[in-house]
Amino acid sequence: MKYDLVIFDMDGTILDTLEDLANSVNHALEHEGYPNHTINEIRGFVGNGIRKLIERSVPRGTNEQIISKVHEEFTSYYTLHCADKTKPYTGIPELFEYIHSCGAKIAVVSNKADHAVQKLCERYFPNMIDAVAGEQMPLLPKKPAPDMVNMIISRLGIDKDKTVYIGDSEVDVQTAVNAGIDMIAVDWGFKTRDFLIKNGAGIIISDVTELKDYLSK
């Protein structure tokens, strides 16, 4: 395999988390008397962390105090319900087994809250991931800042030219650019192929088998 470290985004890349995210957002909105959003609307809001998801979900002009209340309610609810409907995309566990069989390491870097990232990795990919980093503001800036990716690379002792980042959004494209590493975009997640192209993605892959073949080169 051409890489010694494969870093994955989480939401929309290795896990289909959209329904649980949407249910949790709508629960928090209802708690404050605000209207719900459709799953497709929520799809367009994700990618820049939970705070930005909440800011995009509340009515325009909502003050910061109320946004914080919605955020807190979301966090409480999502902590309990983050795995109700969530599932790995088809073929991802098998891909992880293949990557390890080649002697490479696997990491996950996500703008989702660190406790949720850790919980979901343990639940769906037990003993399959070598390093995990979720949103830990203010300790580390969120993606597209490269800090979390750089921390993982340093911790695992892998050269950047042997590292690739795989994700499904414009945030992931820019994260890889900022970190100075290769990037593969996937279009089975939250963003369309056309959107990824417009936002600078070079290599775009549409299914896990194709991704495995590309990594095998």
Quick overview:
By secondary structure, this protein is of the alpha/beta class.
Report the major sheet: 6 strands, parallel
Which regions have little confidence, pLDDT < 50, spanning 5+ residues?
none
- Percent strand: 15-25%
Instruction: Note the overall shape.
Output: globular
Number of domains: 2
CATH-scheme architecture of the largest domain: 3-Layer(aba) Sandwich
Task: Tell me the name of the CATH homologous superfamily of the largest domain.
Answer: HAD superfamily/HAD-like
| DSSP strand count | 8
- CATH topology assignment of the largest domain: Rossmann fold
Secondary structure class reads: alpha/beta
Cα end-to-end separation: 6 Å
Strands ordered across the widest β-sheet: 5-4-1-6-7-8
Total helical segments: 10
**Helix percentage range:** 40-55%
User: What is the name of the CATH class of the largest domain?
Assistant: Alpha Beta
In round numbers, the mean pLDDT is 95
What order do the helices and strands follow?
EEHHHHEHEHEHEHEHEH
Please tell me how large the radius of gyration is: 17 Å
Describe the structure.
Helix 1 packs across helix 4 and helix 3 crosses helix 4. The protein folds into 2 domains: 142 residues, 3-Layer(aba) Sandwich (Rossmann fold); 64 residues, Orthogonal Bundle (DNA polymerase, domain 1), CATH 1.10.150.240. It is 47% helix and 16% strand. The longest helix has 18 residues. The strands form 2 sheets. A 6-stranded parallel beta sheet has the order 5-4-1-6-7-8, with helices on both faces. It has a two-stranded antiparallel sheet with strand order 2-3. It is α/β, with parallel strands linked by helices.
